[in-house]
Write a structure and sequence with these properties.
Blueprint: H1 3-53, H2 62-91, H3 95-124, H4 130-133, H5 138-152, H6 156-174
Helix pairs in contact: 1-2, 1-3, 2-3, 3-5
């Protein structure tokens, strides 16, 4: 096992333990809070900014503060809803189901995060790099990811990889080359 394998295992153990302690409803509340928070903040940030301008008219970062405020409020409300559901399940003596489903959801979140990290590593790192080449788990993850993507949307991995590399090349070419000083 190499460091990448240890990181993959640590991420999965973290998510499993977190799923056991937090349970399904708190995990869903947290996930829904992040997704809804971002979505609502993107859509309602202009209205919140115009509302807050009445109280703080000359603040440069007011749009950012508006976005953050909406996001945090939605995140807290969804987490509270998840906590309420968890408490209700516990009172109905279904705490075991909440924890079991929490582990399942946590494993899915860990797998998705691991997929994302490994895919990004394969895009920006050569496949023969020691970190990837000596890993026991990375090839399994790459193969399972590619199989899953080929079933759902063939060719999307390569398109995504080309898009990322194209963006990287654009940024690299946009950086001005260091000019030599003619006086030295």
């Amino acid at each position: 096992m190499n460091p990448l394998d240890l990181v993959i295992i640590a991420v999965m153990v973290f998510f499993i333990v977190r799923g056991i302690f937090r349970g399904f409803f708190r995990e869903i509340g947290s996930l829904a809070g992040v997704i809804l928070g971002i979505w609502l903040a993107v859509h309602y940030q202009p209205q919140m900014t115009s509302y807050l301008k009445a109280f703080v008219p000359t603040l440069k970062y007011l749009p950012l503060i508006s976005f953050g405020l909406i996001f945090v409020i939605v995140l807290v409300l969804c987490n509270l809803a998840g906590l309420a559901m968890k408490m209700m399940m516990k009172r109905l003596l279904f705490g075991w189901a909440d924890r079991g489903l929490g582990v399942t959801l946590a494993i899915l979140k860990g797998i998705i995060l691991t997929y994302l990290v490994i895919v990004l590593l394969t895009v920006f790192m050569p496949s023969k790099a020691p970190l990837m080449a000596k890993s026991k788990l990375a090839p399994l993850i790459i193969n399972s990811y590619q199989s899953l993507v080929s079933l759902t949307s063939p060719g999307s991995y390569e398109k995504w990889k080309q898009k990322l590399l194209g963006e990287k090349k654009k940024k690299d070419s946009a950086v001005p080359k260091k000019r030599e000083d003619p006086t030295s």
